[in-house]
Amino acid sequence: MDGTAGVSGRRVADESALDDPVTLGEQDPGGMLRFTASAGAQVRESAALAAEANLQLLEEEGRPRAVVIAGIGTAGRTGDVLATVAGPRCPVPVIPHRSAGVPGWVGAADVVIAISASGRSPEALGAAEAAHRRGARLVAVGAPDSQLQSVAERARAPFIPVPRRAPARASLWALTVPVLLAARTLGLVKVNEADLAETAARLDADADRCRPTAESFVNPAKSLALGLAGSIPIVWGSSPLATVAARRFGDTLSANARYPVVTGALGEAGRGRVGLLDGVFGGLIESARDIFADPGDTEGDLTRLRLVLLRDGGLNAEDDTDEPLAVEERRADAVQTLAERRGVRCDVVTAEGGSALERLASLVAVPDFASIYLALAHGLDPMAVPAITEMKELANQ
């Protein structure tokens, strides 16, 4: 297969393309904008599907020793969401696992939740098979009538069918809600119907704000995309919850917009990666500029860093004091000041909402749309990523 087949686009982003609905429709034939706008509906549908599954089977043997979340890519990201929503005082360890099989210590005292949007990923299938062999309790989440459902049926384990209408990266909420509700049945998280309803409403509202017909100056996702255009994005989260959203943004920027990106926790960044602001793509770039260059000539501009800071100002009910929050807020203020001093532009997305799940949704929604608009500004189809398809074909040879 020709690795360049299906690859198109332009080096410099076209701002005008984002305010032309016709152009947006032509560049997005697969409907990634539409699928991303369905996030609220995904929450509602998956909650209904999970309610129909026999999750009560999980309660019969009581609280597990540990819960392993097995999956890769977006499916694996659901484990990060569960660990964050469960919080630091979760009564048992929640362990995301992104390789085939399960950790060697997994046994009858544990629960394995295997997730695959397609229902056929080797990582989820291997974990489900291993859990069955070892006598661990199993929950499977994925496409109906798939290999993963067959494994669950052989193990007489609950299976939550998630209809596959979009690529996995556009199905985060469809895959996450069943995982959260399975964990709720085990007594690990306090996610109630009101939390789900408010999260879905938040996602609906952000989808409306980020709709294709909203012009760039009032559309936060288009504004964020245009700010990132031509840069090297650095996305840092101020808290564990915001860090999950930051890594999610890295996933979508890479897959949808084909941008290289640095992501992580702001606390870790302060121990080393904040030095990027002093590098040749950050503050030091000024010394490399031609002082005689035409200020209006953008063709000769060197690539610069662009910082995106995801801030979670909400209180964590699991914390005994407000001190962790205060430390996170001081770090966020400090890195914004450092960026300003070095001439590195910084975009800030601040969490809103009451529950941890709703706050996470508020940090994920706009960046999800921004990654798609950035692809469209470069003339790229965010749905069709030839390298992903080719990688799967080569790996299966």
List keywords for this structure.
single chain; alpha/beta; 397 residues; Rossmann fold; four-stranded parallel beta sheet; five-stranded parallel beta sheet
Strand content: 5-15%
For the record, what CATH class of the largest domain applies?
A: Alpha Beta
- Helix percent reads 40-55%
The radius of gyration over CA amounts to 22 Å
Order of helices and strands: HHHEHEEHEHEHHHEHEHEHEHH
Strand sequence of the main sheet, in spatial order?
A: 2-1-3-4-5
Number of strands: 9
Work out the count of structural domains.
2
Query: Which homologous superfamily in CATH is the superfamily of the largest domain?
Result: Glucose-6-phosphate isomerase like protein, domain 1
How many helix segments? 14
Beginning-to-end CA distance, first to last residue: 13 Å
Structural class by helix and strand composition: alpha/beta
Poorly predicted ranges (pLDDT <50, ≥5 residues)?
A: 1-6, 316-322
| Quaternary assembly | single chain
Average residue-wise pLDDT: 89
